[in-house]
Fold each of these.
Amino acid sequence: MSKVKIKLQEERDELDFVIAQKLRRIQELGEKIKDLEGKLEKLLQAEASKTCPEQPTMAQLLQYCSRLKDATQGNLTPNPK
């Protein structure tokens, strides 16, 4: 074989090796993407199934504010007189 044919064959072999490595890496990344998509789907389903706690009514909020005001002014404890 001539030197040119040998060099071309070596370059082709090197390129085949590089391409094979790239394909392997692409497959690995594809598997990781599938895993992450699965985890994301589970998280989205878990988030969608959560419900907000029951919200207090206006009367309950006003009562809470009134008790808080009384507590800060010291009106919840009996007068020691």
Amino acid sequence: MRRKKLLLLIAAAILTSSAYAEPESRLGVDATVATAIINAVPAGRRPIALPELQYGFVINLQCAAQMQPESISISVADTRHALNAAEIDGKAVVEASITIPRQQVSPLAIDNFCKLQETGETDLTELSVEGAFTAHISLRCKAEERQSIIYTTAALSLNLQCAHPDDVAATIDQGASPTSTER
């Protein structure tokens, strides 16, 4: 009885090791943190309208044996970006970026951030929002008679920076100054 168990265990180990010998499809993603500069607002809970946001991605990919990458798709909010086989070109690591227009980014309701105090100062000037958005990434692999798709998601963080009222006024003043040809 003991010998049968031992043989069964050895057979299972051999079968398991051969199953892992062939590489499976894999998809890993690292994303950069987007930064948004926000103008100070009066105290009270108000939604903060966000500007256009840009995220960068480093995508690690591997298709199963005998398969080649056909495409990578990245989707955030209603923005999509695709890389075709020529752009991937057999690379194991691919870099991509996606820009989300401000119209596709919903406002964030955050307490005690970038609020003007009675003294004219702002309270909190920088805030990190972990997982503010989600990116959906897919990898399509293809062989002659078969194809597969694997999916993953990546939490996208956002770094909010509060523009001090003096900085905003200086930016406005610079924009209003005449150009050197007008002087």
Amino acid sequence: MTREAHTRRILLLIPLALVAWGCSSKMPVIRKQAVDFKSTALFKLPCDENVPPGEYEMEVNRCNSTHMARMVERFMLIQEADESRSLPGDTIDEVRAKGFTIYSDPEKKTRRANTRVLYGNEALSAAGMGVSPPPLQKPDEIKAYADFMAQHYAEEYLERDMTVVADRFCLNNRDTLEFGEDRVFAILWRGGRVFKRIIKGGPVDNPKHERAFLLCPTSFITDTLTGTVSNTIKTVTPVPR
């Protein structure tokens, strides 16, 4: 074997050894982070104007976030109807006074983002009270059912601030972490009074560990077979957690 061929063989074996070492030690090869953010822009956290340069990005994210504790607190102040206590339930105006509105302008011409308006059975379903219509044959029965459904109106407010971080390990493991807030605030009115209010979802902290035959990134394989040792070492350098 010539000296040149021997050198090429060594250069090929070194990257392959790095692959085996990375897999056996479960060293992360690639990390991906995704953010799913949706908000009504109600109850926004205040922004600090005196932010150090290194913390600017963190402060921007904070300004876009929702003061969730305050939103939940204000939502729970909405009064539901309670016949046993002779409480009629809040009107739409009383709900607006507590900070919940589907409009982003005082003139009520612009719909607020991430809100939904529902009527009839869809409104009931938003509060977990969907019903199947009874068998209706007579015109008066149909009218009575239609009049009953027409009394129901609902609004939903979506607040989602989720981050998904995935560490993929060469050939054998993948760790995924989902964390954040994922809530839907639903308010149901019957005859113009709050009949029910409900919060669906809540805080999320969902780590997962998967074992599977996960191929390395294409760039890693290419660098291993055709690139230099320095390129390969750079590829497998673990991403700081």
